[in-house]
Amino acid sequence: MNLRGRNKVSPEFSMSSMTDVVFLLLIFFMLTSPAITPEALDLILPKAKGKTTNKQTLSVSITKDLQMYINSERISNSALEGELKTRLTGEEDPTIILRVEEGVPIEKAVTVMDIANRNSYKIVLAVKPE
Predict the structure, then answer these.
(1) Residue 75 and residue 39: Cα distance in Å, rounded?
(2) What does pLDDT average to over the chain?
(3) How many Å is the Cα radius of gyration of the chain?
């Protein structure tokens, strides 16, 4: 008489379901984490196609109210060039990210671009991807 059971429990543990859960959590957190810079202002940028850059020395933002910010600190238009020179001295390959809100007159953006050109700074115009 055979009294052994037909179902034999295997002592091996499969890690495939555990790795699936870990990968799903990784994808979830990557998609829900903010991909923008933490020191940036909440601006509505114009749409365009283009490349992004990972190197950022500092950010100059211009709002619809024509207020200028360096990173997240408000600055007057007249003190902008002096403050940029102060912050970018000693930087290797200084780069400015120019964030201009939609609807701002182009003259304001050109003013910042002119300052960057006179001081040999690289300037990148930030846009919202299409």
Answers:
(1) 15
(2) 80
(3) 26
Q: Which CATH architecture has domain 47-129?
A: 2-Layer Sandwich (3.30)
What is residue 74's predicted lDDT score, i.e. its pLDDT? 92
Mean pLDDT on 92-96: 86
The Cα 122–Cα 34 span in angstroms is 26
What is the residue-wise DSSP string for 62-113? E-TT--EEETTEEE-STTHHHHHHHHHTT-SS-EEEEEE-TT--HHHHHHHH
CA dihedral for 50, 51, 54, 57, sign (positive or negative): negative
Q: What's the pLDDT at 17?
A: 83
Give 50-82 pLDDT, tens digit per residue.
655 556 678 899 999 989 999 889 999 889 889
Tokens coding 93: 């390959």
Q: What 3-state class would DSSP assign to 42?
A: coil
DSSP-derived secondary structure letter, 120: T
Q: What is the pTM of this model?
A: 0.57
The domain segmentation of the chain, as residue ranges, is: 47-129
C-alpha dist (Å) from residue 57 to 82, 117, 122: 16, 16, 10
